[in-house]
Specification:
single chain; alpha+beta; five-stranded antiparallel β-sheet; 32% helix; globular
Length: 265
């Protein structure tokens, strides 16, 4: 089996050890793995069976799919997951519980405060801020020029739940908690612990999973009045929490899934 691992240059340098995991595991399994860096140019003359696209580039994913390559995750997921407004619209339309969310336009004024503002294409907590009044809202808009959503603040700030999914199957849930920031991202210093899902939580998570064909992704839930509520989908999901706090080898699980669900003929 021929496999591509597709990164942009910055993320490839930042995730060198994670990329090495893929090369080590692929060598063990007899998989022909090639690292493709977007900025260096993609060689479309020798296509793989599967392309794991680890960059937010739905156009590239769609092009590869049009050439007969299985892309993980699909261009559909890439377009939905990597734009927070697209995520909200799609899940809201399909009956998923969400915090009240609006697209920020030039004429938009928050109907109440506080509100969380987030760049639609951001990740890792970048430029996610709570604004408490109109002056703070204007200051944020002056600073952050990109497409943005405004969201009602959940009651239980400083914690969220990351659910790792491979092949539409829940692998592990990790609780992220920050005592210093309402953002609980692990990369921002939040603490992470394993989390046991109850039956109701599993049902809520499965409702989201059922709307997608997920190869490998993270589903993020926040807590409102003690109950989980969907927040974001991480298409290019990180695995530092799993390798730091559990004995789960997510790369091994993912590659085994791809091998068992790929027709090479």
């Amino acid at each position: 089996m021929k496999l591509w691992l597709v990164y942009d240059k910055f993320e490839a340098e930042r995730n060198r050890r994670y990329i090495d995991f893929y090369f080590e595991k692929c060598k063990e399994k007899g998989i022909d793995l090639s690292l493709q860096i977007v900025e260096d140019g993609i060689d479309f003359s020798r296509l793989p069976h599967i392309a794991i696209v680890r960059t937010m580039n739905p156009d590239l994913s769609e092009k590869l799919e049009g050439m007969g390559v299985r892309v993980c995750n699909s261009s559909f997921i890439s377009r939905i997951a990597n734009d927070k407004w697209n995520t909200y619209e799609y899940l809201h339309k399909n009956g998923i519980r969400l915090m009240d969310t609006c697209l920020v336009t030039d004429t938009f004024t928050p109907p109440y405060y506080p509100m969380v503002l987030k760049p639609c294409m951001g990740k890792g907590g970048r430029d996610v801020e709570i604004v408490n009044n109109y002056e703070e809202f204007c200051a944020y808009r002056e600073k952050v020029k990109e497409k943005t959503i405004a969201q009602k603040v959940a009651s239980d700030k400083g914690k969220d739940l990351r659910v790792y999914v491979v092949g539409n199957r829940i692998i592990k849930a990790m609780l992220r908690v920050s005592e210093e920031d309402f953002r609980s991202n692990f990369c921002l210093g939040g603490k992470a612990v394993e989390y046991e899902l109850n039956d109701w939580e599993r049902e809520e998570i499965q409702k989201v999973i059922s709307l997608f064909d997920i190869s490998y992704a993270g589903l993020d839930f926040i807590f409102d009045n003690g109950k989980i509520i969907f927040n974001e989908m991480e298409d290019v999901v990180g695995a530092r929490m799993l390798y730091t706090h559990t004995d789960i080898d997510i790369v091994e699980i993912y590659l085994n899934f791809l091998i068992s669900h790929t027709n090479l003929t």
